[in-house]
Structures are given as structure tokens and as C-alpha cells.
Amino acid sequence: MGNLTLDKVCKSFGTVDVIREVDLAVNDGEFCVFVGPSGCGKSTLLRMIAGLEDITSGEVKIDGTVVNTTPPSQREIAMVFQSYALYPHLNVRDNMGLGLKQAGQPRAQIAQTVERAAHMLDLESYLNRRPAELSGGQRQRVAIGRAIVRKPKLFLFDEPLSNLDAALRVQTRIEIANLHRELGATMIYVTHDQVEAMTLADRIVVLRDGRIEQVGAPMELYKNPANEFVAGFIGSPKMNFLDAPALGVAGKSLGIRPEHLALSRDAGMIEGRVSHVEQLGGETLIYLRADPHGLITVRLFGEHAAEVNDRAFVTPDMARAFHFGADGQRLSM
Amino acid sequence: MSARANILRSSFAHAILIAYTILALYPVLLIVINSMKSRRAIFNDPLSLPTRETFDLVGFHTVLEQGNFLLYFQNSMVVTVASLFFVLLFGAMAAFALAEYRFRGNLLMALYLALGIMIPIRLGTVAILEIMVAANLVNTLTALVLVYTAQGLPLAVFILSEFMRQVSDDLKNAARIDGLSEYRIFFTIALPLVRPALATVAVFTMIPIWNDLWFPLILAPGESTKTLTLGSQIFLGQYVTNWNAVLAALTLAIFPVIVLYLIFSRQLIRGITKGAVK
């Protein structure tokens, strides 16, 4: 079991409100990702769930029990940190086993649990090494191993992939997804990378300025964003926001994803000039400058030839466009 | 840069460093060589090395025969090591608390603890003596340890709290989740990571304590509690000074400090922090 309920949770540092009345329920076995720009409070929220930060007001419940004042070690959680946070003076085996030793488990049982986790993470040959003798990817696996052996109700991940290089990040991302499938445990994962959020999450929580902007499954957020912020944050490359009055449509801005724009050399709704072209092989990104809309990103599949300063027209697929009002909220059409 | 220019530059740097080393070590060397010469040779030719005719260990004989030198050594050692221990322990603990916990008056407390750096403890000598008399601690080594601990703490807290702030928060939080108590986090995680800083503070704290004459003279002048510096004073008379004995005592006094220094400087190696985070 591993349910988490946040009930009107607030956090203030002095007069600064970092988390404002967050309500959230995470179900047992769910992979929930907190995503948002830096400074949105997502890490603070995670640390409040872990018990590393006090809660100013509201309630945090794990499996229905209020844990506001329970120390972190008794919340039956495990956390993986961005900086790995391995104990430098202990080898891999003791790093993974320290929590269990502290909880007073018998030595043989600890050894067995650690072996099993090491096998799962392919760390068996490194058990006697110190963190200093491991690569970044191996260190992160040890950190994950340290979380697994505790058999927690909740796994908390605080930007675990940020210190890895791009290739390793993709690989570890897949490993974490597999781990979730294998363990079936509840996981809460903080990231600022919307690609990680989209690929890992059962449910994404988009945060801004300490408030939840929207909660939903990845494709739900992609297809049905509640407001301009979520629309701009989810999806890569970023959604275009066109000047709605200039196009004669409702609202203040018209949101259209780069993949939902048609490009033409001869005719179309908006005329512009190519300002930059990115050839990625599988797809081509063309950036158009068109007043008064600013820079428009067009995403075309396959290879397309375009020169800077070429004249081009784009036409949004209006069925897939979003209308936003002056307050940034979605207008129902 | 060419390899040639590199060699030139590094040899220039080394020349300066070697010159400075000679300059700094020369007085020490003078003390050591003169301690092994006869009185006449010290005055006639103070800069020369002892020769067969001038070699004379009379100073060492005097020092070792003159009563309680071994005891003075022991007293100095006890006072220095005990004070060092308490300065490092309490200094590191205070630094950890100041760096780690958010509480009302944190900054004020830090300023208060650092204030002692600017105010010499000797200004309070009269009050300290009164306290020691009232506590019946005059002529005990405890009195000296207490005073030196107080004297060393401000700088220790000041330096160590800066280093404690650099100990990764994630590491401490990971330990909290693993169920380690705050004391164990302090002793097993924070302290080993600030070891280089501890060694630095130890060296800075140790030298003034070892060399101090003021407080032993005032608080513990009794024969059984004399420290080495105070004990050496018997050879410095108003009219006659037994230079052989003074130089011999100083030579002997150098070695324990060198040993302590070697112990601490080994700790300055940073290697252990590598791989903890990032």
C-alpha cells in the first residue's frame, strides 16, 4: 500500500509563500511526476512529503495517517537525490544497507536484501567499492538501490537524472520505468524536464509559483491543457502562441503546436520569413518570423529544404488550436 | 605556453618559496645549533656550526637536571591536547548547528560567537582570575584548559561554520531518511567531510596555546602545574641569563609541536570527500 494525500498543504519561509494550498491524491502504485519551472516549489513539496521540511499548514497523509510530525525515517519512504548523496566513507554494500542496519534488521537479512537489489540494478561486481570509485551512472544506481532495499510505501525522486549525460539519462529513464513496473510501488518524481514527465508519468502535476496548475495523464495535458502555462510547458518544441485578434479569432492568443501547422510556399493564413532552420534528420524545425506573432516554430516530419529569408506561409489546423483569454485561461469553444 | 617558459616560471616561483623558507627557518636553526655549543662559542661566533671544540650539551644537561622539566613538558602537552580537543569538538558542534538549523536569532548567535575573534581574551584576565579563585581552580591545569578552550572557540566556530555550510544538504537528508540521529549525522558524515578544515583550525589553535606564557603565569604558576614556557623562565634572570639552558629548552619545545603539526597536516588531504555528491 502507498497512498499519499495532500490536504491544503502550505509552506512559507518567513513572509514568502512557497507552497500555497496544494491538494493532491496519489493512488497506490501510481507514478506521479511533479513538473514545473525552477523555483515553482516542486522540490520543496517533495521534501515536505519526505519530512525534511516542516509543513506550515495543512496535512500530509500516507495511507490515511497524518504524518505532519513524523520524522522522515518513520514515514516508510525512500528518496533518491539529484546529487546521489552517497555516504563517501562507506562502500556500496554499506551505503545500501545503512538504513536497514539503523532499523535494527538482522545482518543476514540485510545482506540478502542488498544482494537482491544489487542484482536487480546490475551492481553486484561493485558492492565493495566506494562511491569515489564509481561512475555517475553507477552512483545513481546505488542511490536507487539504497531506496529499493527499504521497501518503502513511497519512492521519492528529486531530479535524479539531472547530473547524467544525455545518453545515460535516456537509459536510466527506461530503467526507472522498468523498476516501477517490476515493483509496482508508488513513485513521486520531481523534474523540470517535460520529456521525462511525459515519458514516465501515469499522472503529471504541473506546478507554478507553489500552486498546482493542472493534474492529468500526459496525453490529457497535451491534448487538453487548462491554461496557457500548461500548454506552453508540456510538449517540445514549445507551443506557438499567435496573436488572436490579428487573426480575427476569439481570445487573446491562439495556441498551436509546431506539429499542427501546415507550411506552404505560395499561400496560407500567416505570411512570414524563415529566420532559422534545424535539420534533425527525422524531422525539420523551421522558425518563421511573422509580425505581430513573433517567432513561429513549425515542425515538419522528414527532411525539408528551406533557406533563411525564404518567404513562407503557415496555416494552423484550427481543430487542434487552443484559445486563451487575457488571464491565460483556456476559453471553451 | 612553451615548456621552456613553464620551467622558467616554476623555477622562479620555487626560488621565492625557497628564499622565504630559509628566512623563516633561519632563527629556528640558530636556536638549535647554538643550543649545542658552549657558552663562550655562543657569544663569540653565534652563526657557526658547533665544531669539535665548541660542541657542548651543557644546556641540555642543565635543563634535564633542573628539577621538573619532564613534568613541564607533560603539563604543556596535556593542556594543549585537551584544549584542542574541546575547541574542535565544541567549535564543530556550534558550527554545525549554526549552518544546519534555521532558528530565531541564528545570525545574532553567529555574530556573538565570532565576537571573541576581535576581543583579546587577556582583557578579561582579572575577571578570569577572580572566577578561578572562586571556583577553586587556581593552580590546576583545568583552569588553563578552560581558558584556552574559550580563547580558541571563536575562530574555530567562524571557520568551521563556513565549511559546514558546504556539506551537502542532500547527504544529511539521505542520512535522516535512513534514520540516523542528528548526532550520528554530525559525527559520521559532517565531521569527516570537514576534516581539512578541522586540521587547519587545530594548527591555528595549537601554536598560541603551546607558546602562551601569560595565563600559566597568572592562573597556574605552582610547581606542579608549570608549563614548558613558564618553566623555561627560570633560566632568564634579570642580570644573568643561562643561554645554554634557554636555547636547549626551546629546542626541546619545538619537537612536540612538530609532531602535532605532522599529525594534522596529514589530515589536510582532501581525497575522502570525492564522490560523495555529483
Explain this structure to me?
The complex is a heterodimer of chains A (about 325) and B (about 280). Chain A is about 25% helix and about 30% strand. In chain A, the strands form four sheets. Chain A has a six-stranded mixed beta sheet with strand order 6-7-8-3-9-10, sandwiched between helices. Chain A has a five-stranded antiparallel beta sheet with strand order 13-17-14-15-16, with no helix packed on it. In chain A, strands 2-1-4-5 form a four-stranded antiparallel beta sheet, with helices on one face. Chain A starts with a strand and ends in a 9-residue tail after the last strand. With about 325 residues, chain A is of the alpha+beta class. Chain A folds into two domains: about 5-230, P-loop containing nucleotide triphosphate hydrolases (Rossmann fold); about 235-325, OB fold (Dihydrolipoamide Acetyltransferase, E2P) (Beta Barrel), CATH 2.40.50.140. Chain B has two domains: about 1-55, no CATH class; about 70-270, MetI-like fold (Orthogonal Bundle), CATH 1.10.3720.10. Chain B contains 13 helices and no strands. Chain B has helices at about 5-35, 40-45, 60-65, 70-100, 105-115, 125-135, 140-165, 170-175, 180-195, 195-210, 215-220, 230, 245-265. In chain B, helix 4 (about 70-100) packs parallel to helix 7 and helix 4 (about 70-100) packs antiparallel against helix 10. Chain B is globular. Chain B starts with a helix and ends in an 11-residue tail after the last helix. In chain B, about 30% of the residues are buried. The interface of A and B includes residues 78, 85, 86, 87 and 146 of A. Chain B: It is a multi-pass membrane protein.
